[in-house]
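Minutes, project check-in

Agenda point 3 was the complex the collaborators sent over. CS summarized: two entities, 643 residues total, and the question is how they sit relative to each other. Sequences were read into the notes so everyone works from the same version.
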Amino acid sequence: MTTPAIRFDKVSRHFGEVKAVDNANLEIQDGEFFSMLGPSGSGKTTCLRMIAGFDRPTSGNIFLYGQNVSDLPPYKRDVNTVFQDYALFPHMTIEENIAYGLMVKGVSKTERYRQVDEMLDLVRLPGFGYRKPSQLSGGQRQRVALARALINHPKVLLLDEPLGALDLKLRQQMQVELKAIQQRVGITFIFVTHDQEEALTMSDRIAVFNEGKIEQVGTPSEIYERPVSPFVAGFVGTSNLISGEVAKRITGSDQTFSIRPEKIHLDSPNGRSEKDMLSIDGVVRDVVYLGLFTRYLVEIEGGGDLVVVVQNLKTTSMDVLSARGQKVRLHWHKDHASRVGG
Amino acid sequence: MLDRASTYLYQRPKLILALLLGPPIIYMLVVYLGSLFALLINSFFYLEEFTGLVVRQFTLRTYLQLFSPTNLGIFGRTAGMAMAVTIADAIIAFPLAYYIARFASPRMKTFLYIAVTLPLWSSYLVRVYAWKLILAKEGIVSWVFNLFGLQPALDWILSIPGIGGSSLSLSPIGMFIAFCYIWLPYMIVPIQTALERVPKSLLEASSDLGANAAQTFRNVILPLSFPGVVAGSIFTFSLTLGDFIVPQVLGNSRFFIGQAVYSYQGTAGNIPLAAAFTMGPIVIMVVYLLIARKLGAFDAL
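CS then shared the predicted structure for the full assembly.
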């Protein structure tokens, strides 16, 4: 087993009474695209800042390729950060911004600018070197921030919600681009985001944060298909949580489980269950027609609502809207239901 | 009636603008620029020495008088003092402003803010006379020097030609100390404002990219707060340039611009020469402001 790029050993960061990060253990492998996903205030940014060195753990240790860096200042760590607000130096040109890391290390001017040109090519901004940050669009600044970090060839690149300020289309484009750049440079990327779709699209693995704790670490498919807690099930995608008596009625056990809306089949009230399928009857309470698909809200026997999503392959809005108030039977494969404990 | 008037005005935004801006603009043009213009015109008249009357006739001879060795000395002395005070104030103010902007807790910040601006609430004359007592031969400064047996050192400083004098309270050094004190708040506040506008993430970015504290200061903090230093220096420089009280109270017989203007327009009745003298600082300040603009001092305003 190779040394992990980053290892958290019982890391906590408390701000007075507030436990921003509480006893976190984590291993991030070399060359991984790793996302830290969670709502704001869940501790993901604090973790990132501790890796960068802007913040120190209250207790526990952080290892960078086996070296304990917990108490090293940021400028002595082989990691670089792409900031949420990009943090480009407004008084310097793009060229000077990108060359900054090399300049403070005392790299010669010619060598600096040779590398800057390489980086400008990498982020597809050739010829932008002489402009000032204020003359660039958000997406362009984003790329400059990336180039400025990558020129130092860090062992680990930290990205703090770097796409948050971009509009949807640009964001999706940058997601693809970031992933491509990561594969090209082969550096470990640690990406902080509160956008679950972004995390699922780009990451090799994801850590889901909630209230200072890491709830689950896994590949996007593991996180999506096998959430281990109600929080993960609810935060990553939408999910139906069924517990108590209703759960017992369906599965025979009162343990809480989650089922994704798109895994549920909508059937007529006397539809037959196939092998390994679970089912429950209900009444359609509400229908939302969303073009590509339709979202049904079904009140099930024993109480509670389930959200069901059905793609509009053959149905029209007229068909689906008439379903309101009708009795239905819901089926799903038992493997699609995930026990979430609690 | 009122309702109709307001509807009438609402439909004519230009009229509202004219009504609101008219009075201040008229004031600006007539009182402010008008008096400056009167000053300019007066500087082109001259005083008939024999009769002691002002001859209202266009001439450059008053300006020629400015170039006498004595008057050039006055300009040089004043500008030199203004420059020295500005540099000293910048050096004193920067660390303090830096502390207020970056490290002080909110309570400490409020306290320091009041401490810095509090002297401005008291009379300027009182403070200047206070310095006269502090710097006097029997004052606290001499007393402290005596206490540590440093009287010879003080005597040595006072014996330096050009800046020395019979005592601190009657020497350019004393004036320098008083000027530095009096104008210091005008330097601290703009620097502090400029420093507070430097986002913290820029400092983190610099450190993240491998710069140590000194490199971050030199490459990021100083260039980004420099406009604040320039803004502060405009105050300290121009205020020193035009002041006539401090030289009067703490100076020796060698005039400063302010004193020259004061005496020419007063006892001597030579208003043209006083006006010409006043044009000196104005020209110096215009040049200074042009340089400051080049340095980007107004970009951040």
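Noted in discussion: Chain B has a mean pLDDT of 85.
Follow-up: revisit at the next meeting once the mutant set is ready.
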